[in-house]
Amino acid sequence: MLMTSFGIDVSMRFGGALRFFAAADVSCADFGATTTLLLPCGAPEKPIVVNHVYCGNARLNARAYCHPLIFAPLPNVVYRNDGKGTFTDVSRESGIGALRGNGLGVVIADYDDDSWPDVFVANDSVPNVLFHRTGPWRYEDAALRAGVAVATDGGARAGMGTDAADYDGDGRLDLVVTNLDFEMFSLFRGLGGRLFTYATPESGIGAATLPFVGFGAVFFDFDNDGFLDLAFANGHMLDNPAQFRAGASHAQRKLLFRNTGSRRFSDVTSRAGPGFALEKVGRGLAAGDIDNDGDLDLLVTNNGQTADLLRNDGPGGHALVVRLIGTQSNRDGIGARLRLTAAGRTQLREVKAGSSYLGQNDLRQHFGLGEGTRAERLEVSWPSGRVDVVQDVPIDHVVTVREGSGLVDRRAFAK
Ligand SMILES: [Ca+2]
Ligand SMILES: [Ca+2]
Ligand SMILES: [Ca+2]
Ligand SMILES: [Ca+2]
Predict the structure, then answer these.
(1) Per-residue DSSP letter, 86
(2) How far apart (Å, rounded) are the C-alpha atoms in residues 172 and 149?
(3) By three-state DSSP, how is residue 401 classified?
(4) What is the pLDDT tens value at each position of the chain, 415 positions in all?
């Protein structure tokens, strides 16, 4: 496990086998033969201390956290797993350390379908970065060219959490980023050809996210209808925001948007139960089926407050949960792509380690099937290049697919 902090980062090794998973602002990916850790914020080369800067409103004698642009940005950091319990810092030679930013969220996904993972970093108040792989251990920033660096007005947003998934079912990955209040959260829809369009206004999440300071973000199909929905964990970074803006509050409620299936979302938070109505200082957000009953639950961490575990008790359709075991690829299948075809539609998933904000979702991949009673075909494309195909996948089960062996286990959902 790697713990990032202001100062020295700490790596801990468990048992005999080195196992790690993404936690605070860290993500890992299979960039080649080994799994790799990436830190969006970077480890300071030397402590950066800003003394005696007055931030806030002196006339009101209201101090506040300084704006991110007051501080010097830091480079991103990437460590190559040497495969023997040690890591090598390859930030400089990979190009990933060349750019400085105010990184808060990171998601690693293959946005251009060339089978190599790329790295999207949500930056606070400076343009986002999209590290596109150009060769073995070589990356360059493609965010501006791809249309994900800034919003349509050309302005950078206060990027916090982020996630990548294909929410409109066109087979291309899309991106979401949470931002500050009065900015709207950013939704970037993949167009193909390494391009995205800023889809916030047309998606229906614009006005609804305007009052919120968003952190955690996750694409997930909460109602098992086969369309990926969106959840956000919110909370102001200032503990005294009302001193600066009337009506602003530190604690905020979460948001749930239902995907209507036509590239639009509707705000269903008011119908999502007491867990969503709870006003807290939300930060981390992760989705997973904690009770193995076939619907996705949510874990929310809050700043200085207890965490919330939101159990999904909604009426949902049929579903399927797929666990991968890599043999030639990394053990958890990180970077693998799954395409499930059911009732004439194909849903895409990519196994990611670390996304949202301070979040690691269930590594198992969940597919909502609605009223469908069959899942005709599951194709798993592994980072090794190998492809496994399973025909007639049992629905309402957790199934395990092993690289090279296909379906090796099936367990019915818990009732
Ligand atoms: Ca790629
Ligand atoms: Ca898409
Ligand atoms: Ca849905
Ligand atoms: Ca569940």
Answers:
(1) -
(2) 18
(3) strand
(4) 666 766 677 776 665 443 433 334 567 677 654 445 555 544 444 545 556 788 988 888 888 988 889 888 999 999 999 989 999 999 999 999 998 999 999 999 999 999 999 999 999 999 999 999 999 999 999 999 999 999 999 999 999 999 999 999 999 999 999 999 999 999 999 999 999 999 999 999 999 999 999 999 999 999 999 999 999 999 999 999 988 888 899 999 999 999 999 999 999 999 999 999 999 999 999 999 999 999 999 999 999 999 999 999 988 899 999 999 999 999 999 999 999 999 899 999 999 999 999 999 999 999 999 999 999 999 999 999 999 999 999 999 999 999 999 999 999 999 8
With the CA atoms of 214, 217, 222 and 226 taken in that order, what torsion angle do they form, in degrees rounded to the nearest 10? 130
- Residue 237 Cα to ligand 2 midpoint, Å, equals 31
What's the CA-to-centroid distance between 360 and ligand 2, angstroms? 22
Task: Kindly give, in sequence order, each residue whose CB lies less than 8 Å from that of residue 49, ignoring residues fewer than 6 positions away.
Answer: none
Alpha carbon of 370 to ligand 1 centroid (Å) = 31
Tokens 């990356």 sit at which residue? Answer: 139
Nearest to 36, CA basis, from 99, 87, 105:
87
Is there a contact between 188 and 147 (Cβ–Cβ < 8 Å)? yes
Please state, in angstroms and rounded to a whole number, the distance separating the CA atoms of residues 90 and 369: 42
CA–centroid distance, residue 157 to ligand 1 (Å) = 24
Cβ–Cβ under 8 Å, residues 120 and 164: yes
Tell me which residue has tokens 């995205």.
196
